[in-house]
Amino acid sequence: MTVRRSTSRHPGMCTASDYDPYKTLGVGRGASQAEIKRAYKNLAREWHPDKNKDPKAEDTFIKISKSYEILSNEERRSNFDRYGQMDESQPFGQSQHHHGFRSFHNSFYFDESFFHFPRSRDFADSKYLLHHAHFNSDVLPDSHKRPYLIKVTSEWCFACIHIEPVWKETVKELEPLGVGIGIVDLGFERRLANQLGAHRAPSIIGLVNGRVTFFHQAVVREHLRQFVEDLLPHKLVERITDDNYLSYLDNWHVENKPSVLLFDQVPIVPLLYKLTAFAFRDYVRFGQVDQGDKHCTRLLRQFNINTYAPTMLLFKEDTEKPVDIIQARGLKKQIMDEFVSNNKFLQVPRLVNQRLFDELCPVKQFHRRRKYCVLLITGEDQAFLPGNKAFVDFASANRKEVLRFAYVYQRQQQPLCQALLSTYTGQCALVVILERRSQAGKVLYRSVSGGWNGSEEDKYRLHEQLELLQKDPTYLSSDATLPELNNEMAPIFIIQWMNAAYEYILQIYDDLLYSNWREMMPILSLIFSALFILFGTVIIQAFSEPGENKPRQPNRPPKKDFVEVTELTDITYTSNLVKLRPGHINVVLVLTNASKNALLRKYAKEVFSFSGTQTLHFSFLNADKHCYWMPSLLRSVSDAAESEGQSDDEEEPSDYAGHVLALNGHKKYFCLFRPVFTGDDPNDSSSETSLSSDSRRKSRSRSSIEVHHKLDRLGLWMERLMEGTLPRLQVPAWPSLDETANRDS
What's the rounded Cα separation, in Å, for the pair 306 and 264? Predict the structure, then answer.
């Protein structure tokens, strides 16, 4: 094809000699990078096609972007300053009249419409654009559930235009299967590009489990599909035949997972099935049966498989009968995901880590329906097997939305069992019904008397107690603070280290083979950081006491086995209340000299599970020393209510011992807990802080309140305090502890 150079110029076209990126951005040749960046941001914001409706906005925006791309790169800027060139491939020091065709090519550099090229930035694909914050908050965590295929592009990248048709075909094929798609603009997201190690466009990157892998083959749809498939871990799907299907299904005891079998006439595992197995690998095991294999005939006959359409069977504890079946010629991602997610737990799973416990038995939310966990504490010996099987049968026959059945091995989860049953010896199995009340590990529970051996009498007794629980939630009469569960499925440390080392070696090999040293620096830095952390951890553990460095959750029980309670005095009053940091609350117990010891012991027991919260402080106020402070505080609330037109003619109590106040010194409000004797009526809820007339009359009507019962419901009140559902009483100012000042006021 012959290209004829025209002597006339298109109005929207500028030659290389006419084009000046400094003039486009409106900066001088001596401008710093900060000035260039500031000018670019202002112009890009003004001329962005989505905001500026001027017909020339898009062309102007592209020129601004290209100008910034040249001037922000010191090497390109130097080339332009010295030779007036914008293409890095042109030899340095050669004038443009020696390269007539290069000058001709550059004369069309900013008007690709002359050749009818599509824009390198397709605004219809804006939903795939990735930004640094979005990538780190959403995409990176999601890469542990599905792989991502990311294209790195830039404005006026002709190679990017060349691969665009193949890219669109690949996206159209892989996105419905569940592969994440992303696009990174090298000119606009340099920070994200540097994080990915992408320094040139076009580049194609695979992301899975937070690990970045570069694509180095020819950009063909088949190669891209195989690249995505190679990103997935090996052995996601196990090949099943007549010889190993029984051991595969029976392995639910060890793996603690349901099992899925895919029957298909294709010997190769479909990519959709691999992606589903990757997404649910922590919950379900996946196997594939080739219907054309002569070694699978017995398997096909046993489950009566239709050979004309793919079939999926899901097994739980019963290995002879699947709990769910789907069969369709065209299995879609949505159907497979729904099929697996509805059956990702066994009928009675074993609690092997804290994550599984949190999913099966979630913490009670005040706006949601209660959920109870029926927990069997049993053993691993053969003597416990009949009782365990009977518990599974009972759970299958009594499935309800509010009930979750699970079991633990006493030997594997000793801290949990000791917290629930301090005198448990492990000689027989026991059933415990519990309800989780807070992330700090607090639960309400009740153990089923008589133990559990799977007899009909045991089943009747458990069914009867579950019926009572449905009618009366206060049936769970005991409370405890549970420790974090041991992770039974965690691999040995040396195996984790070997797997991580293997991944790093593969990454280094890939970088040595294809990449430059600048792209290798993040990997080398990561390796040395990991080695430093490894040896540092070993050294620290060698010189520390056992259990000293055990990680704790933010809301877990505190490091200390006691609660620090300080007394509010003239010295500590200002720092602990008046000038308390914003967001912090001081929980103050009011007591007297006579009730001090009894109330402090009860107070420490009730608030212990909340003492790990960094924003809570615990104090006590001696009413014998500061007898005017409480009346002054309540009187200021009454005066404020009267000024707003609310009348309250109730009398103030004479004894404030056992009152608890949650004081927010910064916002000047408090929540009040009034003690009520709870020994006679467990259903009485009037102790949960209110200044209503009914609760005041009830508290005054109990003339003889036993000291050790005054704080019986403080734990429930603290839960409501953490939920933020307690009424708040505003005060104009905090009263002074000085008795003379309070008496005069």
Answer: 10
Rounded CA separation 659/710 (Å):
8
**Contact (CB, 8 A) for 658 and 710:** yes
Residue pair 484/441 in contact by the 8 Å Cβ criterion = yes
- Locus of tokens 């090298």: 186
Rg of the chain taking only CA atoms, in angstroms = 35
Residues 6+ apart with CB under 8 A from 53: none
Q: Which whole number is the average pLDDT over 116-124? A: 46
Q: What percent of the chain has pLDDT over 90?
A: 28
Confidence grade of residue 690 (pLDDT, cut at 50, 70, 90): very low
What Å distances lie between residue 151 and 58, 166, 171, 708, CA to CA?
22, 12, 11, 68
What is the per-residue pLDDT across 260-299, written as a single tens digit (0 to 9) for each?
Answer: 999 998 888 999 999 999 999 999 999 999 988 888 889 9
| Mean pLDDT calculated for residue range 119-133 | 72
Axis crossing angle, helix 74-83 with helix 57-71, rounded to the nearest 10: 100
Coil vs helix vs strand at 70: helix
Cα distance between residue 718 and residue 631, in whole Å:
23
pLDDT tens digits, 578-597: 788 888 999 999 999 888 88
Assign 57 a pLDDT band (cuts: 50, 70, 90): confident
In three-state secondary structure terms, 169 is helix
Which range among 248-252, 518-522, 592-596, 706-710 shows the weakest confidence by mean pLDDT?
518-522
One-letter amino acid identity for 579?
A: K
Q: How far is CA 584 from CA 570, 576, 607, 667, 726, in A?
A: 20, 10, 16, 10, 16
Report residue 705 as tokens: 């309140």
> CA-to-CA distance for 696 and 694, rounded, in angstroms?
5
Exposed / middle / buried, residue 41 (Cβ in 10 Å: 0-12, 13-18, 19+): exposed
Bridge partner residues of 152 (DSSP): 184, 203
Q: In what order do the strands lie in the sheet with 442-447?
A: 403-409, 372-378, 430-436, 442-447, 478-481
Q: Which helix (H) or strand (E) holds 436?
A: strand 430-436
- For 156, which DSSP code? T
Question: 117 phi and psi, to 5 degrees?
Answer: -80, 145
The rounded distance, in Å, linking the Cα atoms of 435 and 373 is 6
Extract the tokens encoding 20. 């000046």
SS3 188: coil
Phi, then psi, of 604 in degrees rounded to 5: -65, -40
Nearest-angstrom CA–CA distance, 517 and 311: 49
For the segment 514-529, the average pLDDT, to the nearest whole number, is 65
**What residues pair up with 481 in beta bridges, in sequence order?**
442
CA-closest candidate to residue 191, choices 132, 126, 138: 132
3-state SS, 682-741, equals CCCCCCCCCCCHHHHHHHHHCCCCCHHHCCCCHHHHHHHHHHCCCCCEECCCCCCCCHHH
| Helix/strand/coil percentages in the chain, nearest 5 | 40, 15, 45
pLDDT band at 512 (very low <50, low <70, confident <90, very high): low
Secondary structure tally for the chain: helices H, strands E:
27, 20
Q: 43-49 long-range CB contacts below 8 Å, 24 or more apart?
A: 44/68, 49/123
